[in-house]
Amino acid sequence: MLELLDTIDSIVWGPAMIALLLGSHLFFTFKTGFIQRKLPRAIRLSLSSDPEGTGDISHFGALATALAATIGTGSIVGVATAILAGGPGAVLWMWVTGVLGIATKYAETYVAVKYRVRDHNGAMLGGAMFVWERAFGRNAASGRDSGSIGRAPWWARLGAVAFAAFAAIAAVGTGSAVQASAMTGIITANAPGIPVWAIGIVIVALVSAVIFGGVRSISKVCEKLVPVMAVAYAGGCLVVLALNWALVGEALGLILECAFTPKAAFGGAVGSGIMMALQFGCARGLFSNESGLGSAPIVASAASTRNPAQQALVAMTGTFWSTVVICALTGIVLVSTMLANPDIASDILANPTVYSGAMLASEAFAKIPYIGTPILVLGMVAFSYTTILGWSYYGNRCITYLFGRYAIRPYQVVYVAVAFLGAIGVGDVVWTISDIGNALMAIPNIVVVLLLSGVIARETRHYVWEGNLDEADDAPIPQLEGR
Q1: Structural domain boundaries, residue 117
Q2: Looking at the domain assignment, is residue 31 inside a domain?
């Protein structure tokens, strides 16, 4: 089974997917007029609130929830696994994916907010499934595009269902099992006496206490936890870099060299090929920032905003923080630590397991006297916990689209049950299935955003580049009957 999954993973994350992702990132960078230039304005906007906006949660609440789902395993353990599998050069490709992916995150969020709907309680619903259904919907009486719910052609409904189904499956793997597995790995690596079943029970209890309260409950927890844990983790990284200061330049040089040339690193323990570095860098880059995946726009659609451009700008800062900052810091920390201690890679790769990435991160932070290990353990636990919360909302919204509101509670029960299974150990299959699920949900999301690129470019020019960012979008938000 593992061999079959590895084969599928290598196919979906082959040259075609890498070309689609990087090509889309480049395309939207130019199509939006290099929207990355608006990053300072976007950061300021993310810290503001607008009582005149329409939505359920604040700008920052939506951003914090999206960051909670992204700054986690992918930003720490994912970087470590990318280095172990693809060599130090994978760090550069993760960073490039992040810089260019800012534009894709803006574009996918823009259309998700533009085509969002209301559920039976009036709460906002959004995501690629509703973009497919509304953007190509047709009025049955007039035959003209109406942007209404339903009456979409079969191929649009197929795109909507495919995205929702793959996202719901990926939420169980990426958001639940993988994060619980990472929590168990980091805790048992530093406190081996704690039984994994006990960790699993605690995870289930803490997750259940929040996710059954809906998006407001999730966003409130994330607003409090995400800033604190991100600052603490970044501070720990800076301390490690200070300890490894003499090797930071060599680490950066090695990352650049291995990104473009095949080279063995760390005494030959880690081999690197250009395609391996590119493949694992892009795969883990998407896993860390989710640009092109279509996940973050689901929660961004619930934000209170005057127009789609406002929340799209806020959402794109998530890619900057998660990959351009956190992943880059993590990568330099790990590479410099492995240069200082070449035996680390040899020891870990001698007996590789699903916890190898967590072990590598633990070794790096253990170099900080007294506080290094506690910072990593607490940071990883907090990151993984909030990621479970964020992805639970993504799965919730996709299940609502597919089966209606009565399927939400059964899905939540399955979600926390899978978290327990992930905690007690489900092996490498978790990472592989998550990689496959991420790729498959990205395809219908990227396709629909590309189809609407003209709309995005035209309205971005009006709202962002012509100075109308405070203008209200008065388009009605339709009700989704029966869901």
Answers
A1: 2-139+155-465
A2: yes
Q: How many CB atoms lie within 10 A of CB 122?
A: 9
Task: Decide if pLDDT at 308 tops 80.
Answer: yes
How high does pLDDT run on average in the chain?
A: 81
CATH of residue 342's domain is 1.10.4160
Predicted TM-score of the model (pTM): 0.86
The torsion region of residue 124 among left (phi > 0), alpha (psi -120 to 50) and beta comes to beta
Contact between 55 and 302 under an 8 Å Cβ cutoff? The reply is yes
Which is more confidently placed, 185 or 94? Answer: 94
Residue with tokens 């405070």: 470
- Residue 472 falls inside a structural domain: no
Instruction: Indicate whether 165 belongs to any domain.
Output: yes
Q: For residues 226 and 64, is the Cβ–Cβ distance under 8 A?
A: yes
Structural domain count, the chain:
1
> Tell me: the pLDDT tens digits for 428-438?
666 677 778 77
Report the Cα–Cα distance between both ends of the chain, in Å, rounded: 37
Read off the tokens for 4.
Answer: 């079959």
- Looking at residue 47, its amino acid is L
The closest of 478, 446, 459 to 310, measured between CA atoms, is 459
- Give residue 314's pLDDT: 92
pLDDT per position as a tens digit, 387-444: 888 888 888 889 988 988 888 889 888 888 888 888 887 656 666 777 787 788 989 9
pLDDT in tens, 458-471: 999 999 999 899 88
Which residue shows structure tokens 């940071």?
A: 379
Distance separating alpha carbons of residues 415 and 367, to the nearest angstrom: 36
The answer to the question of residue 476 being in a domain is: no
Beta strand 117-118 with 124-125: parallel, antiparallel or unpaired? Answer: antiparallel
Under 8 Å CB-to-CB from 2, ≥6 apart: which residues?
427, 428, 429, 432
* C-alpha atoms less than 13 angstroms from C-alpha of 384 in its C-beta half-sphere: 32
